[in-house]
C-alpha cells in the first residue's frame, strides 16, 4: 500500500469530497495560495477557485458563524481555524449556534459542517499555539469531536465527518502533519465513534488519543521487554466516545491507564475513568491511572515544555507499576 | 410613493395582527405566567412588517428577539407562535425553543438563538449560501441597537462587505438596550453610519412609518439581489413596554418620553393615511376584528395543545443518533 503524509491524506479527503459534492466548500484564513498554515489546502484554490475556497479576514467568530448559517441552508462548509487556541474567539458561535441549531429547531435545521483545527504541544509554540482543549468541546451537547492519529484515519475520518450531518470539530495534532502512513488508493471511510485497538495484550489497557497513540505504542514495546503485554486503544473520537471497546478491553486486562495531551483536570481521561469504573468495576485490579498534562499553560522553553508532556518513559513507568507490585520489581 | 393601496392595507393588517398578538401574550402572561418571558414588540410593528412584506419565499429572514411581525409575515401561524410562548408542542420548536427564535426552512425563516448579536454571522452565512447557489435570494437579518455594539456585529458585517454578500442588515433602533440608552452605549451618532467601515451603503429611516420602511427595505433588497451588495438599514423606533415583562417600571426612561412615542404609533399613522386614501373606518375596524378573532383562536389552540413528552428533551441532539 502507498505511504503518504497525514497532511496529504487530509488534502485528498478535502479534494475528493469537493469533487463528489458541489455543496462542499472551504473557508478560513490563508487557505488560498498560501495553502493554510499547515499546507493542508495547498493547490485547492487553483483547482476549485475562490467560489469554493473562500479566504476570510481574521475573524474566527464570523468564520464559524457564517459556516453555521451556510450549513443551516444545506451547504457543507469545512471551516479551518488555524490553531485550536483560536477557537475561544468563536466559542459563542460553537456553543450557541453550531451545537444547538439542530436541537432547538426541533430537527428542521441541520449543521452538516466541519471545523478543522490544529492542536497540541511539543512544537515549541508556547501557550497560545499548543493547547489541547478537546474536553471543553466534548462537554457541549450536539458537537462531535474527532482526533485522528494516523494518515489512514485522517483521510477516512475527514471524509466521514464531511458526509455526517452533525457538526464535527476535527482536531489535527500539529506534529502529525508530516508523519507518513499507509493510505489506500481506493475510496474508504472511517466511521466516527469507533475506537481502534492498535495493539492487543492481556495485562493492561492503555487508552490514548492523537499524538499520544504513537507514544503509547512505543511504551507498550518497552513494556513487552519487561514481560508486560498491553492493549493499546486509539479513541479516534472523543464524541461519540466508543465506550464498548474500552470496557471490553478492561474486562480482559483489569487495568486501565488513560493518556492524553489535554490537562488532566476535568479532561477526557476523567470521563473514560468514570465510565470504566462503573461498567467494569468488578474487573479492576487497581485504581485507574491518568497520565496527562498538569494544570498549567504550556510554556515556551523546550525543557519546560517537555516536562509537561506525557512521555513514553512516564507511560511505561506508570504502567509497569500498575502491573508489577513494587516489591517484585 | 410606489406602494399600492392593497399593499398598504395588507401591511396594515400585519401590523394590527402583531399588535393584538403581543397584547394577548402580555394579558395571558399576567393572568397565568408563561414558559417564555414575553419581550413585546408593541410600538415597533412597522419595522418587521415593512421589511418582510414582499420578500420572496426563498429569501432568508433572521428576526431579532423582538421582531414578532417577521414570524407572522413569513407565515408561522398565530396558533403555533402562541403555543410556543407557553411551552406547548409545535412543529418548529417542540418545546425546545422560544417563539421568538423559531425557524422554518419552508418559510425562509432562519432559526435563532438567545445570544444578542450572535445570529448576525449566521444571517451572513445564509447570504453566502444564496450567492453560492446563484439563486437570487437574499438574507435579511434583524437586530437591535444594543447588538450593533457586539464584536460579532463587526466581524459579520466586515465579512459580508469583503465577500460582497446579498445581505440586508436591519437595525431595530428602539434607542434602548434593556436599560441603557443609545447615548450611553454608542459613541457614533447614527448607527447606519457604521456601514462606512464595511464598504457598503447605510440608510436611516423613520421606523414608525411602515411605508417608508418598506420603500427603504425594497431598495436594500434590490441592491442585494441585483448587485450582491449589503446594506445597513437603521429603523428608528420605540418600544412601549419594558425590555421584558420583568421590566415593568422602566426606571431608565420618563413617562413623558413613552407618551410622546405613543403619539407616533405606527398603526395609527397608517390608519390615518389609509383614511386619507379613501378607506372607511368600518373597513379598518373589520380588519381589527378579524385580527382579534385570529388571536383568540390562537389562545384557545394554545390552551388545548399538549406539552411535548418530558423524555423528548433528550432526543434530537444528533442527527441519526
User: In terms of quaternary structure, what is this?
Assistant: heterodimer
Overall geometric form of chain B: globular
Record field, number of beta strands of chain B:
7
Measured by DSSP, the beta-strand proportion of chain B falls in 5-15%
Structural class of chain B: alpha/beta
What does this structure look like?
The complex is a heterodimer of chains A (329) and B (321). Chain A contains 12 helices and 14 strands. Chain A is of the alpha/beta class. A 7-stranded mixed beta sheet of chain A has the order 3-2-4-5-7-6-12, sandwiched between helices. In chain A, strands 9-11-10-13-14 form a 5-stranded mixed beta sheet, with helices on both faces. The radius of gyration of chain A is 20 Å and the shape is globular. The mean pLDDT of chain A is 97. Chain B has helices at residues 5-32, 45-52, 68-74, 78-85, 120-133, 151-163, 182-185, 210-227, 255-262, 266-276, 281-304, and strands spanning 60-62, 139-144, 167-173, 176-177, 180-181, 202-206, 231-236. Chain B has 11 helices and 7 strands. The mean pLDDT of chain B is 97. Chain B is globular. Classes of the chains: A alpha/beta (329), B alpha/beta (321).
Give me a quick take on this structure:
By secondary structure, chain A is an alpha/beta fold. Chain A has helices spanning 6-20, 44-48, 60-72, 91-98, 101-104, 134-138, 151-163, 211-225, 243-253, 268-279, 302-308, 312-323; strands spanning 3-5, 24-28, 53-55, 76-83, 114-119, 144-146, 168-173, 180-182, 196-199, 204-208, 230-234, 237-239, 256-263, 289-293. Chain A is globular and about 65 Å long.
Amino acid at each position: 500500500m502507498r505511504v503518504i503524509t497525514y497532511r496529504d491524506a487530509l488534502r485528498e479527503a478535502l479534494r475528493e469530497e469537493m469533487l463528489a459534492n458541489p455543496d462542499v466548500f472551504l473557508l478560513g484564513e490563508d487557505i488560498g495560495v498560501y495553502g493554510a498554515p499547515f499546507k493542508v489546502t495547498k493547490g485547492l484554490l487553483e483547482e476549485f477557485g475562490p467560489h469554493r475556497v473562500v479566504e476570510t479576514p481574521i475573524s474566527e467568530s464570523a468564520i464559524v458563524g457564517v459556516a453555521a448559517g451556510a450549513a443551516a441552508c444545506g451547504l457543507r462548509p469545512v471551516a479551518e481555524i488555524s490553531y485550536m487556541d483560536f477557537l475561544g474567539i468563536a466559542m459563542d458561535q460553537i456553543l450557541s449556534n453550531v451545537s444547538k441549531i439542530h436541537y432547538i429547531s426541533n430537527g428542521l435545521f441541520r449543521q452538516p459542517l466541519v471545523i478543522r483545527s490544529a492542536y497540541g504541544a511539543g512544537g515549541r509554540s508556547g501557550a497560545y499555539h499548543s493547547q489541547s482543549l478537546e474536553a471543553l468541546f466534548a462537554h457541549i451537547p450536539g458537537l462531535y469531536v474527532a482526533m485522528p492519529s494516523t494518515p489512514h484515519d485522517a483521510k477516512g475520518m475527514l471524509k466521514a465527518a464531511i458526509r455526517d450531518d452533525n457538526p464535527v470539530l476535527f482536531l489535527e495534532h500539529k506534529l502529525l502533519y508530516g508523519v507518513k502512513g499507509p493510505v489506500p488508493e481506493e475510496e474508504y471511510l472511517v466511521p466516527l465513534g469507533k475506537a481502534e485497538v492498535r495493539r492487543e495484550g492481556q495485562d493492561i489497557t492503555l487508552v490514548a488519543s492523537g499524538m499520544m497513540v504513537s507514544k503509547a505504542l512505543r511504551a507498550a514495546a518497552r513494556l513487552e521487554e519487561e514481560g508486560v503485554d498491553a492493549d493499546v486503544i486509539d479513541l479516534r473520537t472523543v464524541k461519540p466516545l466508543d465506550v464498548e471497546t474500552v470496557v471490553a478491553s478492561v474486562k480482559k486486562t483489569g487495568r486501565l491507564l488513560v493518556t492524553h495531551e489535554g490537562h488532566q483536570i476535568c479532561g477526557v481521561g476523567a470521563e473514560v475513568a468514570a465510565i470504566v469504573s462503573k461498567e467494569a468495576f468488578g474487573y479492576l485490579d487497581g485504581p485507574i491511572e491518568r497520565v496527562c498534562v498538569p494544570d498549567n499553560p504550556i510554556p515556551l522553553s523546550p525543557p519546560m515544555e517537555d516536562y509537561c508532556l506525557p512521555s513514553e518513559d512516564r507511560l511505561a513507568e506508570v504502567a509497569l507499576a500498575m502491573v508489577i507490585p513494587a516489591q517484585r520489581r | 410613493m410606489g406602494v399600492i393601496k392593497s399593499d398598504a392595507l395588507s401591511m396594515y393588517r400585519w401590523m394590527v395582527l402583531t399588535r393584538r398578538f403581543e397584547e394577548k401574550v402580555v394579558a395571558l402572561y399576567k393572568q397565568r405566567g408563561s414558559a417564555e418571558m414575553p419581550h413585546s414588540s408593541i410600538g415597533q410593528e412597522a419595522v418587521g412588517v415593512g421589511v418582510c412584506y414582499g420578500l420572496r419565499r426563498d429569501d432568508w429572514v433572521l428576526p431579532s428577539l423582538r421582531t414578532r411581525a417577521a414570524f407572522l409575515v413569513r407565515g408561522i401561524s398565530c396558533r403555533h407562535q402562541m403555543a410556543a410562548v407557553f411551552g406547548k408542542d409545535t412543529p418548529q420548536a417542540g418545546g425546545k425553543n422560544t417563539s421568538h427564535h423559531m425557524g422554518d426552512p419552508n418559510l425562509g425563516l432562519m432559526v435563532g438563538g438567545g445570544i444578542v448579536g450572535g445570529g448576525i454571522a449566521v444571517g451572513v452565512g445564509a447570504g453566502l449560501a444564496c450567492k453560492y447557489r446563484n439563486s437570487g435570494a437574499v438574507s435579511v437579518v434583524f437586530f437591535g441597537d444594543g447588538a450593533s455594539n457586539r464584536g460579532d456585529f463587526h466581524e459579520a458585517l466586515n465579512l459580508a462587505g469583503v465577500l460582497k454578500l446579498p445581505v440586508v442588515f436591519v437595525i431595530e433602533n428602539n434607542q434602548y438596550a434593556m436599560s441603557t440608552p443609545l447615548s450611553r452605549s454608542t459613541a457614533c451618532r447614527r448607527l447606519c453610519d457604521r456601514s462606512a467601515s464595511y464598504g457598503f451603503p447605510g440608510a436611516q429611516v423613520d421606523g414608525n412609518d411602515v411605508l417608508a420602511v418598506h420603500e427603504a427595505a425594497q431598495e436594500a433588497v434590490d441592491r442585494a439581489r441585483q448587485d450582491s451588495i449589503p446594506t445597513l438599514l437603521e429603523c428608528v423606533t420605540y418600544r412601549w413596554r419594558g425590555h421584558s415583562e420583568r421590566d415593568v417600571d422602566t426606571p431608565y426612561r420618563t413617562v413623558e418620553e413613552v407618551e410622546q412615542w405613543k403619539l407616533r404609533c405606527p398603526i395609527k399613522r397608517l390608519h390615518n393615511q389609509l383614511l386619507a386614501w379613501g378607506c372607511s373606518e368600518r373597513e379598518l375596524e373589520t380588519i381589527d376584528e378579524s385580527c382579534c378573532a385570529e388571536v383568540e383562536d390562537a389562545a384557545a389552540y394554545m390552551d388545548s395543545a399538549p406539552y411535548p413528552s418530558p423524555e423528548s428533551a433528550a432526543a434530537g441532539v444528533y442527527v441519526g443518533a
